[in-house]
Each structure stands twice: as structure tokens, then as C-alpha cells.
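Reviewer comment 2.1 asked that we show a complete input and output for one of the modelled complexes. We chose the zinc ion case, as it is the one discussed in the main text.
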Amino acid sequence: MRAMLLDAPGRPLRLAELPRPEPGPGQVLLRVRACAVCRTDLHLVAGELPDPALPIIPGHEIVGTVVAAGPGATRFAPGTRVGVPWLGWTCGTCRFCRSGRENLCDAARFTGYQLHGGYAEYTVADERYCFPIPEGYSDVHAAPLLCAGLIGYRALRVAGEGTRLGLYGFGAAAHLISQVARHEGRRVFAFTRPGDTTGQQFARELGAVWAGGSDDLPPEPLDAAIIFAPVGALVPAALRAVGKGGVVVCAGIHMSDIPSFPYAILWGERVVRSVANLTRQDGEEFLALAPTVPVRTTVQPYPLEAANAALDDLRAGRVAGAAVLVMGEA
Ligand SMILES: [Zn+2]
Ligand SMILES: [Zn+2]
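Response of the prediction step:
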């Protein structure tokens, strides 16, 4: 099969011809139909994440069809369309797994990081961590739901119930979660790179009541803000934008250092916290909710062998919505 392989951080991905993987116990073999490109993949390629299993096939927003099942795997019939997210395996026994926080599992393995991912024509996955894909989404439109959607959803939940919601970085996750927020009766304030009028227009089209640069203050104090951009300087900026009791959620896996800031902007019971990974419950809730909103995904498709171009475009802010690799007929 063809796959895009990361040999070492700092190098471009390499198109490789690899043997088709065999499904192990409890695993399904998937013919990959589409795999969205996540900002985490940029951090992986740049060497900003510790201890990747190299060489690794990236990609953790996989939509595929089941073509075979390993020993003991009976959950999905052949032909079933399933999604594979970032959380690929957990131990089930650590204190986090036993308290509904498998996203924090000490021994967790992640797709496209410790486990081979979806920048390939085939992949294997533990069936317990796969999700059925809701009807009504094409493969390419479903793929961004599997990380941008799921992580965005988890971030939205921990942001609390406030109605005035700021989103810093209006990329793949924000464009999905702003639709959920609107559906819940919230008002979305979108912050883009300063001067990115195209991004601000995109946010308004998706229902943001206000859009501006990340160096702007919103016209009224926010109840919560979610930071999707990997820029530590946005933490004090967002703290200045939220009112008393406001919550600032950092939703990315990597962020540049946070500059020091005066205690006064944290005072008033403002909270800064991160969101890490996802639980299977997050996925089940979000994938049940998405078609009812309905969440519509804006995608920019690329062929598998153009994965490096997709990563470059994402890094440079040239993607409206989500970049998605689409696999041709094998
Ligand atoms: Zn991701
Ligand atoms: Zn665990």
C-alpha cells in the first residue's frame, strides 16, 4: 500500500510502498477513504511532540471502511464505515481510566503518533476506539469531525455554559464548534491573525456575531474563550477579553511559551486550563449531536501524495476549514 511516512522530525513526509497491515486481536483492517490533517500533525512533523514512534504514518482523523477483522473483533461487519480518532488505546486500569478520564491515561497510545495513522491506503485500529460515522456525511466531510470536532466539543464543554464565547484561531476546530455553539444559543466572537480579513469573513459566514484580530478586544466581556492557535501570547490576550469568572481553555497539544502577565487579569476567579485528548464518551456525544445541528464541514481536499503541501498550507494559514487527504481507488 502507499503511505506517507515520517522518518524523522524536521523532514518532509516520504511517499513509501509498505506492506498492507494485518489486523491483530481486537483490531479491524480499514481501507482508508479520507484522513483530515490536524494541527497536531504539524507539531509532530516539526518535532514539537515528545517520543513519537518513528518511522510513523501520521493522521488521526480517519474515515475508512472495514475490510477484515482480527481475532476476537466482532463489533463491525465488513463494509461498515468507521472513524478512527486520536485516542487509539488506553490501559483501562490506571486511576484516570477508572475515573472516566481515559483521555489522561498514563499508558495511552495515540493514532498517528505511537500507532500508525491514516495517511495511507490502509490502517488497522482497535475496534473499541472506533466510532460509527453518522449518515449524511461524505467520507471527506466526516473526517474533520474526528479531531477538530471532537476536541473542539470537549473544549466547548469545559468552557462552561456561558453565552458569550470567544474562539482564538478560526481554523478546523473553530469552524465546527462555532456551529454547535450557535445551535446552543451562544454568541460567538472570532479572533484570527491580525489582518486576516478572509478568516474573519469566514467566521461571520458561520454565524460569528463579531470577528476581529487576536490583538483586538471584543465589544463586550466574554464568558469563556477557547484558544485553538498554538500561540502562548494569546493566553493573556484571552484573559483580558473574559469577564469575572471567565474561563480560558487551551485546546491545542502544543503552545509556545506563555508570557508573564499581571495577576490582575487572572483575579476575579478567572480560570486558565487545558484540554487534553478525548474520551470515547466525547466522541459518542459529539457524533450524535453533529447531524442534529447540523454541523457542516468546510474542506479543502488533497490527494494522499500531496500531504506535505496540505501541511504547508495549514502552517501558512491558507486552509479555509479543514484540509483532508482523499485516497483514490486502490
Ligand atoms: Zn488532531
Ligand atoms: Zn489508563
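Residues 59 and 118 are 5 Å apart (CA to CA). We note this here for comparison with the apo prediction described in Section 3.2.
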